[in-house]
Amino acid sequence: MTTPAVSTVVHARAPGKINVFLKVGALLDDGYHDVAIAYQAVSLYEDVRATAADDFSVRVGGTVELSRVPTDGSNIAIKAARLLARATGYRGGVRLHIDKHVPVTGGMGGGSADAAATLLACDTLWGTQLPREQMLALAGQLGSDVPFALTGGTAIGTGRGDQLSPALAKGQFHWVLALAEFGLSTPAVYNELDMHRDRHAQDIFPATTTPSVDANVLQALRAGDPLMLAETLYNDLQAPALHLQPSLSAVLELGENNGALAGIVSGSGPTVAFLVADHDGALELQTALEAAELTVVRASGPVHGARILSA
Ligand code: C5P
User: Fold this and answer.
1) For the chain, how many structural domains are there in total?
2) Which of 122, 151, 199, 200 has a 20 to 30 Å separation from 3 between CA atoms?
3) Ligand 1 test: best mutation among 162, 186, 197, most atoms within 8 Å of CB?
4) 285 vs 92, 237, 262, 289, 296, CA distance in Å?
């Protein structure tokens, strides 16, 4: 508790993610669903710079559309800093500057990465030295995907998605991401799935309470084989996301007709993630999608989780 960072600015970085597999179980009494997720952290990063201050504030910049990012106490980075201060008894505040590169409300965990990088930056700035297990627990209180933004790499998430176990992965997978001009609210997409399941309760099997990740996904990740992984990409939130935003179907089709091995809505969307064979394949697909006037970024994964870059 007594070794604050030497420099006045601490710089932390955390990655966005793609869910290469996301199975949604039954709706629980607490409003959450049991899920089984295979997460891959990808090379789009959120950079958080933390400076000591008496109160809590945040400024936001970056390469993505920022109009949907709040800069008051509802920003998840402020919530993360306040939670850490409360948990450790730290009495001061922090001034945060976030440089965003993960699409906002895009289903790629940008807000979660902000929270993870903020926890780490403030812990270093304030010298609070929170044990890793406790930091993961605080991360889980902030959001289901925040623990994964701390750990990064490739992992299986169960429970709300916050109970993590590492998964073996070989090599690098290459992705082309088609960004949308609109956002999708995660609760709204889950809700759409629940309504669909209610409407068709007679025709579909009831959702299992403890879903699991298919063994084929784990095998494809272990083998580092994009063709195999393309066969196993799966997302229960894709259908409800497409229902809420039907224009995404044409995006998926465009990518798959232009060389993608497979396309999938990322998390609750609306970002569409295309898996390609290699770097050249990514460049070719990017060119084709940009010719159709889509906004596109390339990323690869897995990459490591939140870390301090300078202190
Ligand atoms: O945990 P997080 O804040 O990211 O969750 C946002 C919303 O997404 C929740 O309020 C809930 O509606 C939905 N959700 C869910 N089941 C999960 C994770 C999220 O229903 N496992």
Assistant:
1) 1
2) 151
3) 186
4) 48, 24, 12, 6, 9
